[in-house]
Design goal:
The chain has 226 residues and is of the alpha/beta class. It has one domain: 3-Layer(aba) Sandwich (Rossmann fold). It contains five helices and 14 strands. Helix 1 crosses helix 5. The chain is globular, with a radius of gyration of 18 Å. Bound molecules: cytidine-5'-triphosphate and calcium ion. Cytidine-5'-triphosphate binds next to helix 3 and strand 9.
Length: 226
């Protein structure tokens, strides 16, 4: 396999990375979230910094320390992540959207802790804004990289997202596969580019997978920007 060797391949570039889950508030003590650990996004931030980029890491709540040298912007909700990500979009050369953004949030939130009551409780959910879709629709010359976390039809769904969100590269994984997914230290990824390159990787440490993702992004840029 081919690794981009040497450092400094992203010198002068600004890379914006989103990572981790979002939390969608119900009341002061309750929220909706998902199992994302943030490890994949943090590893990509570290790998991009290692190639000399200015790295802005926009992170939902995680339990890990940001890699040294990166600018960290902490957010909680999908709305906050949207606002932070869009505020850096114009300056970005590359955007990597590894965050597991909530697709829905509670339509109504409570200022006080909701007391339990007899019978059922239904929470009405409304859609959040798709950050990556918004970026794809407004793309000028940024390189846009998305993730596709799927449990079935991985290639088909990933290709659909690549095209409908106007992406340059998508990183797909099957979250039900042993050694892949949200929580662990390893991942099994396949990358697809807009110009038809497909790379399937074996089970790798997330830090190693991040190096290959950065390497695939650099190769794509070399084909397109020179
Ligand atoms: N994404 C985003 N904003 C959202 C939802 C998703 O930017 N509100 C981004 C994710 O960060 C990821 C990509 O879109 O890079 C794909 O996310 P995924 O959840 O796999 O796909 P969705 O488009 O949300 O579709 P679905 O969940 O129905 O598969
Ligand atoms: Ca989703």
């Amino acid at each position: 396999r081919h690794f981009v060797t040497g450092a400094g391949q992203l010198k002068g570039k600004t890379v914006v990375i989103t990572a981790g889950p979002t939390q969608e508030r119900i009341d002061p003590v309750r929220y909706f979230t998902n199992h994302s650990s943030g490890k994949m996004g943090y590893a990509i931030a570290e790998a991009a910094y290692g190639q000399g980029a200015r790295v802005v890491l926009i992170s939902g709540p995680t339990h890990i320390d940001p890699p040294k040298g990166v600018e960290i912007i902490n957010v909680v909700s999908a709305k906050e992540m949207f606002e932070a990500a869009m505020s850096y979009y114009e300056k970005a050369d590359i955007v990597v959207k590894s965050a597991a953004v909530a697709d829905y949030r509670p339509k109504d939130t409570f200022e006080q802790k909701r007391k339990k009551q007899p019978g059922k409780w239904s929470i009405e959910m409304e859609r959040t804004t798709d950050i990556l879709q918004t970026m794809g629709d407004q793309k000028v010359e940024q390189i846009l990289v998305g993730f596709a976390a799927e449990s079935e039809h991985v290639e088909e769904y990933a290709m659909k997202k690549l095209h409908s969100k106007n992406l340059d590269l998508i990183v797909a994984n099957n979250i039900l596969q042993e050694g892949a997914g949200f929580k662990g230290d390893t991942n099994i990824i396949t990358t697809f580019t807009k110009d038809g390159e497909k790379k399937e990787y074996p089970v790798l440490a997330k830090k190693e997978a991040a190096q290959f993702i950065i390497s695939d992004i650099i190769s794509y840029m070399e084909r397109h920007l020179r």
